[in-house]
Automatic annotation (TrEMBL):
Main subcellular location: membrane
Organism lineage: Eukaryota, Viridiplantae, Streptophyta, Embryophyta, Tracheophyta
Coiled coil: none
Subcellular location: Membrane
Residue ranges constituting the EamA domain according to the UniProt record: 6-144, 179-317
Listed GO MF terms: transmembrane transporter activity
One GO cellular component term: membrane
Family, as annotated: Belongs to the drug/metabolite transporter (DMT) superfamily. Plant drug/metabolite exporter (P-DME) (TC 2.A.7.4) family.
TM annotation in the entry: 7-28, 34-56, 68-87, 99-117, 129-149, 177-197, 209-230, 242-262, 274-294, 300-319
Membrane-topology annotation of the record: Multi-pass membrane protein
Name of protein: WAT1-related protein
Domain of life: Eukaryota
Pfam family, one: EamA
Amino acid sequence: MEDMKVYVVIFLISFIYAVMQILTKAAFDGGMSTFIYVFYRQLIGTLFVSPVALVLERNIAPPLSFKVCFKIFLLTLVGLIVFLDTYSVGLDYTTTTSAAAMINSAPAVTFILAVLFRIETIKIKKLQGIAKVSGIVLCLAGILTLAFFKGPQLKSFNHHHLFGHRASQTDRGHSKWALGILLMTISTTALSLGTVLQGFVLKEYPAKLAFTALQCLCGAIQSFFVALAFERDFSRWKLGFNMNLLSVTYGGIMATGVTFYLQSWTIEKKGPVFLAMGSPLILIIQIICSYVLLGEIINLGSILSGVLMVGGLYGVLWGKKREENDRKKQIRENEKACLEEKETAIPAQGVLV
């Protein structure tokens, strides 16, 4: 039952992110600043999560030391602000399908970082080690395919685009497209690094709601100064009753508030690499919504790169699962051997007496 809960949570996270990307892309195509979007999303996330954390974890949250607070601040800067700002600009330069495909490279990057931090291990001479390495290679091949190969376009049959989305905006020049892929690669690396480091911080501060609220608060402060540096025209900061307000509200409450808590819960239960297994669901939902509802032009290169990255994802996850099974089997064999040794030692001790 506990494993089933984890899978349901992963699907929910993937669905929330897929919807968020659709709304965010629509807001960007409408002219909203990517940096202002990140700030409002973090601000709304703070206003939503903080009261919930105060009510539910006021008596159980551990004392917040300066050391832990500083770690959360740095973690937010790397795993949240760098991730969101570079990802948002990359999304503005490319398409939602490309962005969803890039997310599938996160497990490979997460695994590499986990190896560097000695959280994960890799054994080249074993089948599971070969699967992990092959998965990483496939993910890298998917990134290169996405950056340098577009291929023929699959045009939508829906000409009445929802949210005022303009499909022509997805037909970017190659220079902006390549820059967008580069920025999303940086964002994926920042996200993966933040995912790995989050596991360490949660061990010191296990109150997940309070942790999420602190991340949102730090993110709101950091993203405000970033947005202020790039957007000095305060008329662009105004939000009306339009797609901009809908996107930041949904992003702040669902993508920032709810999913941060769900991700923390999943990392605590299964670890950072396991969390990434739901990313192919984002790609599938994204393709369907973008093609049918938004009329977005989908390139063959985006689909092909997505297939490569999904293959790489499950190569890494299969290798990890195989290693976990071997480890559990070895533990059971050791326990059985110890038990047999104790059983044989008891009669022998009786004879000596």
